[in-house]
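Ticket #4471: structure export looks truncated?
Reporter: QA, pipeline team
Priority: medium

Steps to reproduce: submit the single chain below to the structure queue and open the exported record.
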Amino acid sequence: MPNIKILATGGTIAGTGSISTQTTGYQAGVLTPDQLIVAVPVLKNTANISTEQVARIDSCTSNTNAVMVKSAKEVQKELDDPRCDGIVITHGTDTMEETAYFLNLTVHSDKPIIMVGSMRPSTSLPADQISLVLVLMVTSKGMAGVPGVSFVVLLATLGTVGIPVEGLAFISGIDRLLDMARTAVNVVGNSLAAVVISK
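Actual output as written to the record:
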């Protein structure tokens, strides 16, 4: 089984509310990553999972830049360990794309880094984060360097959150071109980051 590290930064995915219908006014970043994965016992049969709490913030908090730097250092440290096969980061959705872009520029590894967030707290019914973590862990196995794999991950993820998979037919024709563009952006971004950091 692969060795997966889950790094938790807080956000809605680890949030709790006072009642199951509360989707606003909840407390973000309350649950630990261990508490999240306990809700999905099948994960024990999928991967060897270890966890670390990097931060416990709401992603719209002003100190997210410090958390991005801390996360990047932790991700790089974990991926440099030959025993680690991939990283899953639980993150708030307000700044997820900024953190993903920052990690793309600063972390150097061919191993998968999966970011997962939630629009509803864990106490909301139905909570989507547990199924997303499971699906993304399973679909990310061996995804580094495989052309077009993002389409497969997207297909599995959309089905998990109840979005009709027929919608993917609209993008399937251009996904190969988009995949090449994403690869080019990643290569250029990693190259520029290496040049900037080396100076």
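Status: closed, not a bug. The export was complete when the record was re-opened. Leaving a note from the reviewer for reference: The CA atoms of residues 115 and 192 lie 23 Å apart.
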